[in-house]
Amino acid sequence: MTLGRPASPGRGRPTPRRPTTGSRSRVVSASFAAKNFGTLVDAVREDRAAYVVERAGQPVVEIIPVCRAAATLADLAAVYRTAGRLPEEYLRAVELGLALLNGPAAPRNPWAS
User: Fold this and answer.
1) Looking at the DSSP assignment, which residues form a beta bridge with residue 85?
2) Beta strands across the sheet bearing 51-55
C-alpha cells in the first residue's frame, strides 16, 4: 500500500513527505491524517510504515506499528528444559481433548450397517 501518490492536477491533496531529521517516519498533515486515517492504519499494519502527524508544521503524534515480541526455537527449547513435567491428569485431559477434536468431520450414519 502506498501513500503519497501525486493527486490529479487542481486537487491540491497533500502528500506524505520524509522528515529532514533522518527518521524513517513519513510526515503527514493533521487534515490528511483525518481524511485518510483508514489508509494510514492499513499502511502501518501491512507495510509496517510509520507516520508523524503535524499540525501547523509542528509534530504532534507518531503512528507506528505495534512491536510484537519475537521468540526463537532456542527460547522454546529453554522453556521446555526449565518447565518440568506436567501433571499426569492434565496430560490425560489433553489427550482426551485431542481425540475428541480429531474425530471424524462428518457424523457417522446411524442407519448404515
Assistant:
1) none
2) 26-29, 51-55, 58-63
User: Is the backbone of residue 63 left (phi > 0), alpha (psi -120 to 50) or beta?
Assistant: beta
Residue 14: CB partners within 8 Å, gap ≥ 6?
A: 28, 29, 31, 32
- For the record, the C-alpha cell of 46 comes out as 501491512
pLDDT digits (tens, 9 = 90+) for 27-61: 999 999 999 999 999 999 888 899 999 999 999 99
CA 71/CA 99 separation, integer angstroms: 29
49 burial type by CB count under 10 A (0-12 exposed, 13-18 middle, 19+ buried):
buried
Global pTM reads: 0.45
Nearest to 27 by CA among 50, 45, 44: 50
